[in-house]
Protein 1
Amino acid sequence: STKSKKAIKLYEDSEHYMARRQYIEVINILNLALERDIKFVEAHLRIAFCSKLLNNIEGQKRNLEDVLKYTETPERYVNVYFSLGESYYLTQEYDKALMVLNDFLQYQGINQRLIPEAEWLVRNVYFAKDAIMKPLDIEPEMLPEIINSGPLQYFPVLTGDEEQIYFTKRQGAHPRYDENIYMSKKDDQGNWIPPY
């Protein structure tokens, strides 16, 4: 999508870094290519891909928006609508997510594997919007000391029947302390047993 020979050369150079999974270098090189031609769609697309791999959702989102802004053939980049919708969902921009995900689902010949994922995202967007409009009145409750027994405990997961709990625990913040997964369950009287 560019006629700039320098931008094309930089794009080609970025392929070597892609092969070595040096994504920050890829982004740096492609930003130089975009200085030569801001409308270089393939460079934006590759930066978006690398940004996602680096968990930089804002960078991914910005470059996906630019792909759609600068392309003359949006039908070539149908999957960008899906990825952009996912990015908007992750950044809680729910109205934008609905717009691009619905656009994605309207296209003919889309990747069939992505349809259930796009439909799942749409359902989750509606759920999130509803939860924001009608928040639940929740009062957190401390678990007994037998469960809250360490300095660092996090990522608790309670089973649906509320009879078992799984959580991650460390004895301290220093790197020498490993994370371990613990489980506790309720005894016959409904009391939590010591985690193991």
Protein 2
Amino acid sequence: GQLQRAVQLAPDSNEVRLAQADNLRKQGRTAGPEAERLLRDLVQRAPADKRVLRMLALVLNNSLRRPDEALVYYDRANALPGGDSEALLSQRAWLLASLGETQVAGLVLKLFEQLSAGDRGYLSGGQEWTAAEILIAMGRRDDALASLEASVKRRAEDARLNSLFNQASLRFDPSWDPLRADPRFGALLKELGAKK
């Protein structure tokens, strides 16, 4: 579709390559090595691009299960000026949980939740989704499912939850693998219109 057309029109564009890598990342573990290759090439071309460094950290941690290496790229991105503090906190919590540092990850998760909730007093659907991924990495499956369920309930307030990306993420992203056998996860997939 559109991504293939963009690749044809601008095969050397960093933006197009980043979109390709993100598309591969969403496909899960089998596409992880190709996403890693694209992102490492982008790191060489744009070593100060936080988006590239953070996405490489996500691929290394989530798709390829190499959290130690992911933390290096996360720290490089975090050292650069500017950026989204909530997103950086959520990624830090996820990486710490993946490294078995669940107590520290839990503290970072609480800080993420406090900053993200702000004056509203609650997380948006997308932020609950992020919290669920961190809770899975911490081994707290029931809490992760509760966060996902809250996220689905808020989907009317957060249009992103109705997107094909999120349906595809639930179906293919390996971070949700620990929940796949739970009937509640199947019910969430059905509610979102995704097929298990």
Protein 3
Amino acid sequence: INDNDESGCAELAATNGDGTVPLISARGSSWIPPGNVWYVNEEHIGLPSNLAVIHAVSVILQGGSPNTSLLTSPARTTATTTHLCSPVQVTATSSQGQIEGPNGDQITGGQHFTIGKSSEVWVPTGDTYTLQLSGTGTGTFTAIVKQVDQDGNTLQKNIFSNVPVKPTSQGTIQVTDAGVGTLSFDYNGKGVLDSI
């Protein structure tokens, strides 16, 4: 978790990994030599029963090095992350109608989180997404939409700051690999949009 952005609220940092443990966490710290970090193409829940993992752990416990032909390199993907600090919930919808958010987990490689009043969604690049913003309370929100590389480095960042919101407010942002569109926002929830 970091709070380095202008918003002053927490967000999850560093993508990649197995969908449960981010790559930055799986790498541990500087006490793990880079030559002692291995990868396997497996879901987190399947690691304990994966034969390549079982064999590698057994070899490591006996003081050896695992057969690297059974292991892989880390997945190298870029992502679009949308982070909201506020009384607003965010959902991403792909061009095929799949959603990633509190009401669905349908986008392969997508993730969504809620930490306190912060709502966040991550989706892989390579598609066009509509981000739906829904007010959950009264106040203001800041939306940070970033495109990050496989190491979590920011490639592009758009910030929509101090936007007024109430429970009936609705908005959308279009996101493509080429960039981030404007925020179309209906403060009163009556079908009248303002571009921000």
